[in-house]
Specification:
This protein is of the alpha+beta class. The protein contains 7 helices and 15 strands. InterPro entries: ATPase_NBD, Heat_shock_70_CS, Hsp_70_fam.
Length: about 300
């Protein structure tokens, strides 16, 4: 991987608000492959919104159940995966704006993927009920609608402006799909996209003063993608010198390694292959928990 010193893009670091404006109706959203989170402005500065009513956490798994009228999202869907995976979906961000031949099919997906009218659709169903399809953009719209509802309840006002982070490796088609998901009957007045590494640098600069003329290295390994960026800080500007991303590598790749390992152990000791049953989703969740633990500790049980 080679980098050059030519400036590609320049961003302006947003200043801290001099005083709290109760009428500020904007939200920042991380629409992640694995998890979502959202922040709004409060009197004491940016504050995260509790999105998941099951865990009461700000981070919410990017899962949607498609066979219920209210289209539940988050941990509620994760918990039912073992018994009712057929109408559950995740990884929608990974599918939006992609071509069918670009998609690497994940054997853990409880859904199918097809191309229809030059867009990616997800197919659901089981042996008892006929299959039906849903646009991958609609799945992300469900997540964004849930986020908007929770944030407006938290703020007590209608939110009209949104900034949504996207991988720096996103193509124009993927960016357009993200905008479509955000404007699909959600009544935003303004939606802007921001590269995820830049959003991380904005957040860091809010908490820590970065010396002028510093050269910084940004590394963002998300749930489904990885971004690397080199930037120069000049006053309140960020000059992007070079950036590179892998749209197919992220935290879920670590999940798959752990799943494969533990399935091999179970197969060797007990002759079990959980990947052939719905118990694979229980193993998937446990491996994600182990990964999260190993991110901050040297061992996990």
């Amino acid at each position: 991987m080679q980098f050059n010193s030519k400036i590609k893009t320049t961003y302006k670091i947003p200043p801290k608000l001099a005083e709290y404006n109760k009428d500020l109706n904007a939200i920042g959203i991380d629409l992640g492959t694995s998890e979502c989170c959202a922040f709004v402005i409060r009197r004491n500065g940016p504050e995260g919104v509790v999105l998941d009513s099951v865990t009461n956490q700000r981070n919410m798994p990017s899962y949607v159940a498609m066979n219920e009228l209210n289209l539940p999202c988050g941990q509620n869907v994760v918990n039912r995966m073992v018994t009712k995976p057929e109408y559950s979906t995740f990884d929608a961000k990974f599918l939006m704006g992609m071509e069918l031949e670009e998609i690497v099919i994940d054997p853990l997906w409880p859904f199918g993927v097809i191309s229809y009218c030059e867009e990616i659709y997800i197919t659901f169903g089981n042996k008892r009920f006929p299959p039906w399809i849903r646009n991958s953009v609609d799945i992300s719209s469900c997540l964004l609608r849930h986020i908007k509802t929770k944030a407006e309840e938290f703020q007590g006002i209608r939110l009209e402006e949104a900034v949504i982070t996207v991988p720096s490796s996103f193509t124009e088609k993927q960016k357009d799909a993200t905008i479509d998901a955000a404007t699909n009957n959600l009544k935003w007045r303004l939606v802007k996209l921001l590269p995820e590494p830049i959003a991380a640098l904005f957040a860091y600069s809010y908490e820590t003063e970065i010396p002028n003329e510093s050269t910084v290295f940004l590394f963002d390994c998300g749930g489904g993608t990885t971004d690397i960026c080199i930037a120069k800080i000049i006053g309140n500007k960020i000059d992007i010198l070079s950036e590179k991303g892998d749209p197919l590598f992220g935290g879920k790749n670590f999940d798959r390694v752990l799943i494969s390992y533990f399935n091999s152990v179970l197969n060797h000791k007990y002759g079990l292959n959980v990947l052939e049953t719905n118990k694979k989703y229980r193993l998937m969740v446990k491996c994600q928990e182990i990964k999260h633990t190993l991110s901050v500790q040297t061992d996990a049980k």
